[in-house]
DUF1059 domain-containing protein (Streptomyces cinereoruber), 63 residues
Amino acid sequence: MTRKVADCRRTPSVMNCTLTITGEEEEVVRAAAEHAVSVHGHEDTPELRAMVRAELEDEKVPA
């Protein structure tokens, strides 16, 4: 299974957050949503999780 990556640097913020989360898709969505709530002050909603999921990228593995 291809691991997924959520990278805060791709979403502009006042904090200039640099956190990157890598893992299986559901793990990353859950962790990124928790991060968005605890650090960035968002509300954990289905819309937030859908936005996180839409922005996930496949992990690039060196050849």
Q: What stands out?
A: The longest helix spans residues 25-38. The chain has one domain: 4-58. Helices lie at 25-38, 46-55. Residues 4-58 form one domain.
